Amino acid sequence: MTKIKVLFVCLGNICRSPLAEAIFKHKVSQRGYHQFLEIDSCGTSNYHIGDTPDERTMTNALENGIVIHHRGRQLQSADLEYFDFILAMDKSNHQNILRLPKADQHQHKVFLMRSFDASDTHDEVPDPYYGGMRGFQEVFEILDRSTESFLQYLEQNYLNQK
Ligand code: 4NP
């Protein structure tokens, strides 16, 4: 059985997307879907290649029971071919993904993360990098909801057919 491959994308790959990856992995393993999914994250920029996530992201995640293991890496055009679902944290990331070579063929795989967050009408996960700790908790809650809804979407459309 081929795995469903999911990639979370933000700008730096040290705040939002590694957190989304860790929360989603936690939900996936809690529900026993571990062997059906491959999950990763990356950034559209080259600012933090090889870096561990932002300390504030890791501290906030731990307070919510989530441990993050990730090193920053930059999105490549090969990711568009490899992954099945590419989830952008905001519109700027979304546009940058679609500017990659050969992106036209893979547009159907690229979504805004919050298009799966049915609880309100916002469409972006705000960048917490230049703000205070409250912003990190807000991002945690948004990603907790959005990844939950995304997993439910996969359950309804793919996972229960396997
Ligand atoms: P992220 O946050 O895209 O959620 O990882 C940022 C991290 C670093 C920078 C910007 C946003 N930066 O400009 O270095």
Word description of this protein:
This protein has helices spanning 16-30, 55-63, 77-82, 91-98, 133-157; strands at 4-10, 37-43, 85-88, 110-112. With 162 residues, the protein is an alpha/beta fold. The protein has a single domain, classed as Response regulator (Rossmann fold, 3-Layer(aba) Sandwich). It has a four-stranded parallel sheet, sandwiched between helices. Strand 1, helix 1 and strand 2 (37-43) form a beta-alpha-beta unit. The mean pLDDT is 95. It binds 4-nitrophenyl phosphate. The site of 4-nitrophenyl phosphate has 11 residues, from loops.
Label this structure with key terms:
alpha/beta; four-stranded parallel beta sheet; binds 4-nitrophenyl phosphate; globular; 162 residues; Rossmann fold
Question: Can you tell me the overall shape?
Answer: globular
* CATH C-level: Alpha Beta
- In terms of quaternary structure, the protein is single chain
Q: CATH homologous superfamily - what is it?
A: Response regulator
> Number of helical runs?
5
Number of strands: 4
What are the low-pLDDT stretches, counting only 5+ consecutive residues below 50?
Answer: none
User: What is the share of helical residues?
Assistant: 25-40%
Cα(first) to Cα(last) distance is 8 Å
What is the ordering of alpha helices and beta strands?
EHEHHEHEH
Strand arrangement, major sheet: 2-1-3-4
**Mind telling me which CATH architecture this is?**
3-Layer(aba) Sandwich
Summed up, the domain count is: 1
Helix and strand composition category: alpha/beta
For the largest beta-sheet, the strand count, sense and barrel status come to: 4 strands, parallel
Strand portion, in percent?
5-15%
CATH topology: Rossmann fold
